[in-house]
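Example 3.2
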Amino acid sequence: MSGAYATFALAPATRAGAVLGNGDHRIHRDYTDFVVDGRPLLFRLRDLDAVSPLASDIPPAILTARIRALLLESDAPLPGGRHIVYGCPECQDLACGAVTAVIARSGDDYVWRDFAWQTGAHADPRLDGLHGMGPFRFDGTGYRAALGALRDRAEATREADEVHGADGELRGTRPRVLLIGPRVAVLARLAAALRAIGIGADIAHDTDDVPAGELRAYGAVVFGLAVPRRERAAVRRSFARAGLDVGYADGLAPIVPLLVAQVEQALDRGPLERRRLTRLVAADGAAVVEVTSACRVRLTAYRLGRLSRGRDHEVFDGVLEPGRHRVALVPGAVRGRSFVVASTAGSVLVEAVAR
């Protein structure tokens, strides 16, 4: 293999959850991704909905064990020195398929090689190898520093759990959103949907009497349609006084899957350079989307039908190459008040259809 080095880093990442048109759910997962040469390693895989083994919602002891394995301080979890790099976001079962690689030492360096798609105990790189991916040689000092810092945080969390009791909410690994508004029925359905995909949700009329310490639990705020502008401004001031930078979403319509997509967009605070989906415009009978790397993109149109019931229509589902793409919108799917949701495994954008 080449002696050239690749840079290694870690960065927060998200597998966006969703409420699908058939009533199924896609679970929201927060995890730490591998960044190779300044780019998420997952972006090298065109059509893969997966998360790294360094998920935020696993017990700290398990996270620590997985980090130790990546540092080669313990045995590899799979035969042949293989490690899971990306696995199923829903169940983590190897039977669903996983991207694996051999991790080995070369002097003081670490080498990731022989990437493969694996569905059983053993992988055959000749048949299932992901050709063109790797090998990567990482400088040992930087590699150990990145994973060591994450291990230190996991161990500190485990110590806190031993004092306060093992509780996922105490660890703060589950994202939470605050739903503001008087239409309790709509917000209650939204809260139930969010909890079903792994996002905590609380409902309130305002934040006048909420202590700053409690506001820190929320990563985003969603305003119901009936919340006046002055009350929205008051909520924003409450978070600003507490020194908190959270995402905000103004509810577009009482359509739960659409609102869930808005929540996912509001929760995504990552930099643009680490997003695959960067722009969405819906106007003039078409949706225009921009992606930074080849990936699977889903476009769904929503509209309000009779009695304010939501209607959805799948506009597009396929792999797009990097760049800008124009997708025609079926006229019947976007008549009246209508909206378009563009989603990849890690990014969601929502836009009202301009008239």
